Amino acid sequence: MPALAITDLRASYASRPVLKGITLSVGTAEIVSVIGPSGSGKSTLLRVLVGLLRPDSGEVVVEGRRIDYASKRDIHVLRNRCAIVFQQYNLFQNMTVLDNVTIAPVKIKGRKRQEVEEEAQALLRKVGLADKLRAYPDELSGGQQQRVAIARALALRPEFLLLDEVTSALDPELVNDVLDTIRLLAADGMTMLIVSHEMSFVRELSTKIVLMADGLVVEEGAPADLFERPQTARAQEFIGKILRH
Ligand SMILES: Nc1ncnc2c1ncn2[C@@H]1O[C@H](COP(=O)(O)OP(=O)(O)O)[C@@H](O)[C@H]1O
Ligand SMILES: [Mg+2]
């Protein structure tokens, strides 16, 4: 049983279709990367998976549970299991790094502060920020802030981590530390769905790559197959363009 199974998923904004029948699955400890041109619906797919957007039709099954988007309880299940990190990290500027990481588990999940703080410290150590617990976001670089955002997502103890272009807003010299953090999580066996433009990173790390265009999955496969032997004309065109850089 895949950890996450999506079947013929359709979603729209107002009445404009954006996801036009997406089928894809993610196994436990798999790292699936979604690539594709801007506007193809990658972020929209992730928004559906964290319950921020209700799909028009299709099926989302998480750990064997079919999500009913009309049910508050199911949306809660979705939000409990899937954590997302966005390009814009949006930390609370008036709170320390440690408080940014602990606030949701303590205030929303009602967990014991001491236990959450211990866990948060371990997470911040893992992302390389053990010495920044008491710092405020504006004292950190963009890459450090993004790593706080990743620690904040992990503090929710998700089964799935969804990453939406988490390095796209960073200065080039700050990208690698964030990618190293993601590599560490991969080595820990975290199940991830990653949207990224960092092609060499995606290729090295992913168990499977899914190419989306215009609201559909164009092609999917092992990284070497998709990059070296794309089958469809659309995939050949896209891979050709990105490999020319
Ligand atoms: N909140 C929104 N309201 C209306 N249209 C949107 C919204 N967000 C995205 N779109 C449109 O949906 C399409 C897919 O967007 P998106 O999922 O962000 O693509 P990607 O992440 O692949 O670049 C685009 O045409 C975009 O303009
Ligand atoms: Mg996007």
Blueprint (SSEs and pairs):
Layout: E1 4-13, E2 16-26, E3 31-35, H1 42-49, E4 57-62, E5 65-66, H2 72-81, E6 82-85, H3 97-108, H4 113-126, H5 142-154, E7 160-164, H6 172-187, E8 191-195, H7 199-205, E9 208-213, E10 216-221, H8 223-228, H9 233-243
Helix pairs in contact: 3-4, 3-5, 4-5, 5-6
Describe this structure in words.
Helix 3 packs parallel to helix 5 and helix 4 crosses helix 5. The strands form two sheets. A six-stranded mixed sheet has the order 6-7-8-3-9-10, with helices on both faces. A four-stranded antiparallel sheet has the order 2-1-4-5, with helices on one face. By secondary structure, the chain is α/β, with parallel strands linked by helices. It has nine helices and ten strands. It is globular and about 55 Å long. The chain has helices at residues 42-49, 72-81, 97-108, 113-126, 142-154, 172-187, 199-205, 223-228, 233-243; strands at 4-13, 16-26, 31-35, 57-62, 65-66, 82-85, 160-164, 191-195, 208-213, 216-221. It has one domain: P-loop containing nucleotide triphosphate hydrolases (Rossmann fold), CATH 3.40.50.300. Helices cover 40% and strands 24% of the residues. Residues 13, 18, 38-44 line the site of adenosine-5'-diphosphate (ADP).
